[in-house]
Amino acid sequence: MTRAELTEKILDIKREKDWSWKHICEQVGGMSEVLVVGALLGQMKLVKPLAKKAAALFGLSQAEERMLNEVPHRGTAMPPTDPLLYRFYELVMVNGPAWKALIEEEFGDGIMSAIDFDMHIDREANPKGDRVKLTMSGKFLPYKYYGNEQGIPEVGYKEN
What we know:
Layout: H1 3-17, H2 21-28, H3 33-40, H4 48-58, H5 62-68, H6 83-107, E1 110-124, E2 131-142
Antiparallel strand pairs: 1-2
Helix pairs in contact: 4-5
């Protein structure tokens, strides 16, 4: 079985049982809903205790349980063709240069981690139509200036 086939099996069981992602995440627990769902969709790994819970919930074999604990090959072809995923891509294409400039002005020469990262998704009531509220928080990782000479900063934190 491939990881993609396991994902399809999990989605088939989810549909058959009429489970919501919220229900599944409550049963598996242990970490963010985004990470649990991402793992069940094949983009993240579940640590062994959570892989065991997910396997029990979905009635998976030991081999499938172990597959949930493997580091996956992450990502998809770009640009994405799904309209919702494409909007995220569009957000980055259009707003990314401004985000980059503002982050660098505030923090210095570096990146926002997508590994040491938190994300929350909330529904925000609005009379013109409910809104999706995303809150992202990633650790700032300054670039290291290797080979730096005395008096030259070692990392790219904002200089005063």
